[in-house]
Amino acid sequence: MAIEMTRDQDGAAKPWAVPATDFIIQGSELNPDHVTAFLGIEPTKANPPGDDPWGPPGRQDGRWVLGCDEWSTRDLSEQLDTVLTPVEARSGLVHSLLAEPGVRAVIRISGYAENDAQIMLSAAEVLRLARLGVPLVLAPSLSER
């Protein structure tokens, strides 16, 4: 199953620009240091519960994030592989964390999506995402650039 991209007048695919992929574990009492020690993976971002000066107003959840953005690669498949490979290797531990009350996880793909641009996920990528059993959130920025 692939999510088809639209094509420009030359027939070239129009992907999202500047994509970023994050695996996010969060919870109202989540201790990101505990998650790091438990999974044995260093996050790219983490913050304890309480006001998040970098997040939206009112966000109180603790967050542990393993991400890959345009500074590493702009190729969405490479970003997914970078994020999913260590998480898949520890999927049993991830599911143990998610069994704790109030702890949840998502995989978030964001990027700039100009007129009708779409992302493309291969069948293998969709299968990898489905096997994790974690919701996929697509977060396009539709603002003019």
Low-confidence stretches: 1-8
Using DSSP, what is the number of strands?
5
Described by strand count, sense and barrel closure, the largest sheet is: 5 strands, mixed
Question: Which strand order does the major sheet show?
Answer: 2-3-1-4-5
Span between N and C termini? 30 Å
Average pLDDT confidence is 80
Bin the strand percentage: 15-25%
Helix content: 25-40%
Structural class comes to alpha+beta
Based on Cα principal axes, name the global outline: globular
Layout of strands and helices, then pairs:
Layout (H helix, E strand, L loop, with lengths): L16 E11 L4 H8 L5 E3 L14 E7 L7 H14 L1 H8 L5 E9 L10 H10 L3 E6 L4
Parallel strand pairs: 4-5
Antiparallel strand pairs: 1-3, 1-4, 2-3
Helix pairs in contact: 2-4
Protein name: DUF4279 domain-containing protein
Organism: Streptomyces solincola
Pfam families: DUF4279
Description:
- The chain is an alpha+beta fold.
- It has one domain.
- 28% of the residues lie in helices and 25% in strands.
- The protein contains 4 helices and 5 strands; from the N terminus they run E-H-E-E-H-H-E-H-E.
- Helix 2 (76-89) packs parallel to helix 4 (123-132).
- The protein starts with 16 loop residues before the first strand and ends with a strand.
- The relative contact order is 0.26.
- Residues 1-8 have low confidence and may be disordered.
Characteristic terms for this protein:
145 residues, alpha+beta, 5-stranded mixed β-sheet, 4 helices, globular, disordered N terminus
Short description:
The protein has 4 helices and 5 strands.
